[in-house]
Every structure is written in C-alpha cells, then in structure tokens.
Amino acid sequence: MPKRSAPAAARAPARLHRMQAASPHLYAPTPERPLRAKHSVLAEDTHVDPHRHDWAQLAWSATGVLRLTTRGGTYLVPPSRALWIPPGVEHAVTVVERAALCTLYLHQRPGCCGPGARKPADGAGWQQCRVLEVSDLLRALMLALPSAPDSPGDGPAPAAEALERERLIAPLLADELRRAAPVPLGVAMPQDKRLRALCEAVLAAPTRHDTLGAWVRDVGASERTIARLFRDELGTSFGQWRQQVLLARALTLAARKRPMSEIAAELGYASPSAFSAMVRRSLGAPPSRLFGAA
After folding, report:
1. Where are the domains of the chain?
2. Dihedral class, residue 186 (left if φ above 0, else alpha if ψ from -120 to 50, else beta)
3. Are 234 and 271 in contact (CB under 8 A)?
4. Cβ(178)–Cβ(133) under 8 Å?
5. What b/e string do you get for 240-257 counting C-beta neighbours within 10 Å, with b at 16 or more?
6. Domain 17-183 falls in which CATH fold?
7. Which helix (H) or strand (E) holds 93?
8. Which CATH class is domain 191-291?
9. pTM here?
10. How far apart are CA 195 and CA 241, in angstroms?
11. C-alpha to C-alpha distance for 242 and 248, rounded to whole angstroms
12. Are the beta carbons of 156 and 181 closer than 8 angstroms?
C-alpha cells in the first residue's frame, strides 16, 4: 500500500449527460469495406449507454480521456493508448475529459477475431478486450482514414476518391494495429454485487481509504468475505487490484500533463521515487516510458 503524504481531494460526483451510441449502422464495415472510421467530439462527463456491435471496434481519443466499461473490466484510454473491443462485447463509454473520439469498426471473417485476421489462428489474444500502445504511424493512419458516414436511404454513393483512399490506407492500418504492443493496463471487474459495489467505489475515489478493512465498512460485508471474493472472482488480492486502479488513475492525470511529482502525491505516495518503484514492479518500465507520451 502507498504511504499517504497528504489527503487527496475527492472530486465531487459529476452529473453525467447520457446518450445512445450515435448511428453506428452508418459506419458498418463490410467485406468490401472492412475498416471504417467514425470521428466525434464528446463533452466531459458524457456517458454513452451500454451497447454492442456485430463487428470489432478500436476506441481511441486524439485528445482527452475515455473510460470504457464492460462486464469484465474497466479501461482508461488517453491519447497514447487505444482499446480493442471484440465483436459482441457490450460496452459503455464515459468521457473523463473532453475527447476527440476516433472509432474504428473492423469487419471480422466468420470464426476469426483480430485486425485483418484470415483464419481462426490469426486471432490468438484478440478475443478479449486489450489496451494497445498507439504508435505515431497508427495515430496518423487513424486520422487519415476517410470518416464520412453512409447516407441513409437512397443517398449519394461515397465519392470514388474517398473509397480509393480508404482502400489504400485500411490494409496498412490493420497491419500496424496487429503490431501494436498490448499494455497491462485495465481493471478487472467482478460479478458479485457486494464486491462490484466496493470496486466501483474504489474506482470513483481510489485514495479515500488505504486498507480493505476501511473499504468494507462502506459496503456492509466482512473483510474476510471480500478478501475471499477478490481471490475467487478476480484471482488477485485487494492490494494488487487497487494498484491497477492507481495505475489507471495515473494514466489519466498524465494525459492532463500533470507533473509526475503531483501524480505521486495525489495517489498518496510519499515521494515520486516510491511511485516510480511501484510502476516498475507492476509494469516492468518506468513512468516516463509508460506515461510520458500520454
């Protein structure tokens, strides 16, 4: 557990502006157009209600920070990272900081999963949500891919020039996406209602308490029961799970250009070196490498 240097100020709960997913059918990928792009700007505290697609999706924000939630986990996505979402996975999106959202929709062949996958073996590791590094080339290709929607009804066909540009960019983008390094960031979420309530409280204010004993008082369950549920449902201890929450929070603060010293203090670490040591132990790399480009 980190040693508190000073109590961190908790952010007052914001009122979310709820909305439905905006016309995904107008960007549906097909075998003829296997990779489509959709761009939108979402205000802070916008919440896109849970939804799912028949195709795979990559969520990335050119600016701002997103939080994507599935039944199995929650993921914070700053501009240096993107989230892969397999077909059929229900997910909700919350905008942590005003975001220029780029969504890629990818057609998947029957039985295959992954960018450009041509046979089932190509999709090893892509059947689950995964956080990916965004290289400079991947970023440029996502921004360059045409993003005009299909016209509803009998509207005009897409311009031939835009279709040709999409045809040229899409294979290179899929190849660069296949090469993107997965990042061990993401917070697993349980199904048990008591444990999920506690986990959601920690996600909302991770520095409110340091110990599991303090957190369980808020949910009315015994510490022994909650500790067992962490082991049984998530295969980890509370301390290890909360560490992932702190790493995700650090990623959000880094995306807002906060100095590492301020991030360490806000997360309750006595010094930047103590925070850096935790990041190295958890992810095998220093904060400057993982968060510096956020």
Report:
1. 17-183, 191-291
2. left
3. no
4. no
5. ebbbbbbbbbbbbbbbee
6. Jelly Rolls (2.60.120)
7. strand 91-106
8. mainly alpha
9. 0.77
10. 12
11. 10
12. no
Q: d(Cα 28, Cα 104) in Å, to the nearest integer?
A: 10
pLDDT band at 6 (very low <50, low <70, confident <90, very high): very low
Instruction: Supply 24's token pair.
Output: 């995904």
- Joined together, the tokens standing for residue 99 give 């975001």
Report yes or no: 118 and 92 within 8 Å, Cβ to Cβ. Answer: no
Q: How far apart are CA 51 and CA 88, in angstroms?
A: 9
Give me the pLDDT at residue 5, please.
40
Distance spanning both ends of the chain, measured CA to CA: 25
| Identity of the amino acid at 105 | Y
Compute and round to an integer the Cα radius of gyration of the chain: 20
Cα–Cα distance between 198 and 209 in angstroms, integer? 12
Between 22-36, 91-105, 181-195, the lowest mean confidence (pLDDT) is in: 181-195
